[in-house]
């Protein structure tokens, strides 16, 4: 993989939102804060950007990445969510949860999760990411800011070894109070089948998310 110059580090202040959107529009992979851990982000429907994201991660393309969007309406555009009520979706999002759905026809990048018909969708409870996705106005592919099989990261110092491969780094400080147990990232729930849920990853908000799902009448199938 070609090594570029070291990425510039931006503080997550007002001018940084538009800068991040410009990097995404230019096909770059950038590092961003979320409501759980730091992520690597790029334009989800840009084939070259997705290939670059996988190369940086050293990740097998069989392992899926999620997308980050702004609104519940976006969840319905990029994923098939006709069987889910607005009440349920608004009770889950924004927050530290990834909702897995079947991809819609609009998510047509052949390099994005080529081994599955599904997509994980996030709306983080994170002002920076919410403003960036609103300005960019397209789905943003998102995965953890680390090499595959490394621990996830709670500060930008923890992934300095990736800087030379990134377009930019956006520093939101220490995330999740710096607590080790919060490195597990978002809770990942498959809601692709009507009336049921499957826990793919417990993550930081497992008990709360499961309680919410069951209060809306969904029943569990075995989780991994």
UniProtKB/TrEMBL annotation:
Subunit structure as annotated in this protein's UniProt entry: Interacts with RSC1A1.
EC category name: transferase
Lineage: Eukaryota, Metazoa, Ecdysozoa, Arthropoda, Hexapoda
Keywords: Cell membrane, Cytoplasm, Membrane, Mitochondrion, Transferase, Transit peptide
Record GO cellular component, one term: plasma membrane
InterPro entries tied to this protein: Sua5-like_dom, TC-AMP_synthase_SUA5
This enzyme's EC code(s): 2.7.7.87
Protein name: Threonylcarbamoyl-AMP synthase
Residue ranges of every copy of the YrdC-like domain listed in the record: 14-205
UniProt-recorded Gene Ontology molecular function terms: double-stranded RNA binding; L-threonylcarbamoyladenylate synthase; tRNA binding
Organism listed in the record: Parnassius apollo (Apollo butterfly)
Keyword Hydrolase: no
Alphabetical list of Pfam families matching this protein: Sua5_yciO_yrdC
Cell compartments where the protein resides: Cell membrane; Cytoplasm; Mitochondrion
Membrane topology: Peripheral membrane protein
A biological process term (GO) from this entry: regulation of translational fidelity
UniProt catalytic activity: L-threonine + hydrogencarbonate + ATP = L-threonylcarbamoyladenylate + diphosphate + H2O
Function: Cytoplasmic and mitochondrial threonylcarbamoyl-AMP synthase required for the formation of a threonylcarbamoyl group on adenosine at position 37 (t(6)A37) in tRNAs that read codons beginning with adenine. Catalyzes the conversion of L-threonine, HCO(3)(-)/CO(2) and ATP to give threonylcarbamoyl-AMP (TC-AMP) as the acyladenylate intermediate, with the release of diphosphate. Participates in t(6)A37 formation in cytoplasmic and mitochondrial tRNAs. May regulate the activity of some transporters.
Recorded family membership: Belongs to the SUA5 family.
Listed PANTHER family: SUA5 (PTHR17490), THREONYLCARBAMOYL-AMP SYNTHASE (PTHR17490:SF10)
